[in-house]
Amino acid sequence: MADTALELRSEIKKEGKLEISLAEVPMPDPAEDEVLVRVEASPINPSDLGLLFGMADMTTATVAGAGNDAVVTADVPENLMKALGPRLDQSLAVGNEGAGVVVKAGSSEIAQELMGKTVAILGGAMYAQYRCIKAKQCLLMHDGVTPAEGASCFVNPLTALGMVETMRLEGHTALVHTAAASNLGQMLNKICMKDEVGLVNIVRKQENVDLLKGIGAKYVCNSSLDSFIDDLVDALVETGATLAFDATGGGKLAGQILTAMEIAANKTAKEYSRYGSTTHKQVYIYGGLDRSPTTFNRAFGMAWGIGGWLLTPFLTKIGPEETEKLRQRVAAEVNTTFASSYTSEVSLAEVLTLEAIAIYGKQATGEKYLINPNKGM
Amino acid sequence: MADTALELRSEIKKEGKLEISLAEVPMPDPAEDEVLVRVEASPINPSDLGLLFGMADMTTATVAGAGNDAVVTADVPENLMKALGPRLDQSLAVGNEGAGVVVKAGSSEIAQELMGKTVAILGGAMYAQYRCIKAKQCLLMHDGVTPAEGASCFVNPLTALGMVETMRLEGHTALVHTAAASNLGQMLNKICMKDEVGLVNIVRKQENVDLLKGIGAKYVCNSSLDSFIDDLVDALVETGATLAFDATGGGKLAGQILTAMEIAANKTAKEYSRYGSTTHKQVYIYGGLDRSPTTFNRAFGMAWGIGGWLLTPFLTKIGPEETEKLRQRVAAEVNTTFASSYTSEVSLAEVLTLEAIAIYGKQATGEKYLINPNKGM
User: Fold this and answer.
1) CA quadruple A266, A268, A273, A275: dihedral sign
2) What is the 3-state secondary structure (H, E, C) of chain B?
3) pLDDT tens, B322-333?
4) Mutate which of B297, B302, B314 to test chain A, going by most A C-beta atoms within 10 A?
5) Most buried one in A40, A364, B110, B184, CB count within 10 A?
6) Test mutation, B11, B94, B261, B272, chain A, max A CBs within 10 A
7) Which secondary-structure segment (H or E) carries A289?
8) Closest Cα to residue B100, out of B134, B131, B124, B142?
9) Measured between CB atoms, does B310 come within 8 Å of chain A?
């Protein structure tokens, strides 16, 4: 085994420049309760982009050098620098999740049992050739599952499961989901079909209506049609959904959903309530595909909420026991309910190219990269 | 006692017209556990205007007839009619709260004990000469308190107390309040000073800064100044406030508050968190002084929420025992902490004039009407 390994880093300089590069770091040595994992597959998820790009304007990106020595540079808009204060001039490792093979293990039983096994990890710093991590954080893949198949065990699967669990915990009975043709959205459809939960999918293109109908979705509303609000109200009346998860964040969509929920609630109301329906209507924004301001008319009474939703605090809230149940469900259904697909497998060096940046800067297009940090090594 | 009494009614016709008029209704007769109250004082609060005006455009208001026979008519914008569906063609009584004297009581002990007493009521339909209501819903005024002094025992006092209780229940330690020079805002300052709770007041005019400083407010930020965000951040750092109550609803203010809370949280953060500060930041919108769309950039991480807040569901949530404690505090401090003042005392007929509508259509100006339905009778 080499003495050093490559790791992708993102740094924002005080001067307002983003730099993405590969760092050569000492090969980690696992402690008693740790294992060393050779990372073979780690996806670039939308949730990785915040840390990776640090709000820089990637249309200004340039690349200096080549291969493992390439450095990507881009400008960070001045008005965003204030919010980035705490991360300035720090070289940060990136990559939320991935999978690989345990190549070295600490002396504890739990670590030794994983030797040679394929494991999936949610732990950050996964865009690296090697990741040293506590054995108990590893999710053991079932026999025959490859690192590529196990690469996306957490972010999308646990988020989709977390949406359904949040629905149950907060007393709702059906869901709305936007940007619903995404990898995550398709998973959510599979979960809801399996668990018999009503799901209203919102997409912007007819091809995505067809895609979701093709995998069995019952309610798919196209927000580009003039009939969108009416279609949405009909689906909300039928499903009774009063909770939405919105991946777009910006624009009018969150408000439109609350308005449609209010109309749906009033359609079945028996008497006029002066402050609108008393049914609590909630939209959680969990992504930011649309970076424009969020804007809404408050034409949906007073029983409503819009808020951020993030996987990690949710898992903290439900606690380790419930979290483990969700993890084990993912491991058991990794090639069915939670199967992911990718358009390209790339090396760490291949991430540091303008072509790659142009593609993963637009995840909504359907392009999805899987990094193999040990590709060709 | 007469056989009939006057009551103010609001009705929206299917054709898109609002009508406000006085109805002559049979004098109610109290059941065993009820009392009949001669209403002598009932305020026009901002929270009454939704039911009273039904989203009609009051600049189109006209008056036909005069005195008790006057009928105010105004147009309801067509795009708002859908949301008003459940109240169409129903003549609705108006007036959330008020006070008066018990003139007739049912046979039960609890009702008989109130005979001749001055009581305050939160029950709706208070813009009426007489209100029949369950004895246990009445809040008995202490000796010597007049109906005019007890008219506003609930909406503003319980809302202000509800804000402080919400702060405690949801784990915050200090508050932000907008439109803070209002009657409610002044009460909130008095409560927070008494209870030693940090309070950041936001106002739009220097005269309101002076007003609040004059009653002892420590933190008052003027949103019209260029230094507003910096001033707000400083006050948030000093108080640690992570919960705001916003009376305006529209525009950018709610988002600015969340952004300032995020900056304040990051000022004390020890390491960079990729999704922003993990401190939950919350804004509750409880009013709609600004009817323009709510709009915000989501530059405040993922631990945030914006939602509607309304007194009645809050009281339901804390339950009857806690609610009674709050009511008794109001009764005890009605002439100190919870004292209200009004610019005019008007009769029911005087409400049905264009002059009155022009004034109470703009509560933010500081004009505040007190209706005495038995004025001159």
Assistant:
1) negative
2) CCCEEEEEEEEEECCCEEEEEEEEEECCCCCCCEEEEEEEEEECCHHHHHHHHCCCEEEEEEEECCHHHCEEEEECCHHHCHHHHHHECCCEECCCEEEEEEEEECCCHHHHCCCCCEEEEECCCCCECEEEEEHHHCEECCCCCCHHHHCCCCHHHHHHHHHHHHHHHCCCCEEEEECCCCHHHHHHHHHHHHHCCEEEEEECCHHHHHHHHHCCCCEEEECCCCCHHHHHHHHHHHHCCCEEEECCEEECHHHHHHHHHHHHHHHCCCCCCCCCCCCCEEEEECCCCEEEEEEECCCCCCCEEEEECCHHHHHHHHHHHHHHHHHHHHHHCCCCCCCCCCCEEECHHHHCCHHHHHHHCCHHHCCCEEECCCCCC
3) 999 999 999 999
4) B302
5) B184
6) B272
7) none
8) B131
9) yes
Bridge pairing between strands B71-75 and B17-26: antiparallel
**Mean pLDDT in residue range A253-278:** 85
- Residue A207: predicted pLDDT: 96
What confidence tier does A270 reach under pLDDT thresholds 50, 70, 90? low
Residue B334: predicted pLDDT: 97
Q: Per-residue pLDDT averaged across A117-142, rounded?
A: 97
Q: How many beta-carbon pairs below 8 A join chains A and B?
A: 111
Q: How far is B156 from chain A (nearest CA, A)?
A: 17
Please check whether residue B62 touches A, CB under 8 A: no
Out of B90, B306, B310, closest to residue A275 by CB:
B310
Mutate which: A277, A302, A312, A317, vs B, most B CBs within 10 A: A302
pLDDT at B361: 65
Per-residue pLDDT, averaged over B35-40, amounts to 98
Please list, residue by residue across A16-40, b when 16 or more beta carbons sit within 10 angstroms of its beta carbon and e when fewer do: bebbbbbeebeebebeebbbbbbbb
DSSP bridge pairs for B346: B371
Chain A environment of B229 (Cβ under 8 Å): none
Distance from CA of B369 to the nearest CA of A (A): 21
Q: Rounded to an integer, what distance in angstroms lies between the CA atom of residue A223 and that of residue A255?
A: 13
Give percent of chain B with pLDDT exceeding 70. 97
This prediction's pTM? 0.83
One-letter amino acid of B246: D
pLDDT tens per residue, range A67-123: 999 999 999 999 888 778 778 999 999 999 999 999 999 999 999 999 999 999 999
What are the chain A neighbours of B86 within 8 Å (beta carbons)?
A: 266, 269, 271-273
Average pLDDT over residues A352-375: 80
For chain B, how long is the longest CA-to-CA vector? 74
- Closest-CA distance of chain B to residue A273, Å: 8
Give pLDDT tens digits for B97-112: 999 999 999 999 999 9
Check whether B274 has a pLDDT greater than 80: no
CB atoms B298 and A278 under 8 Å: no
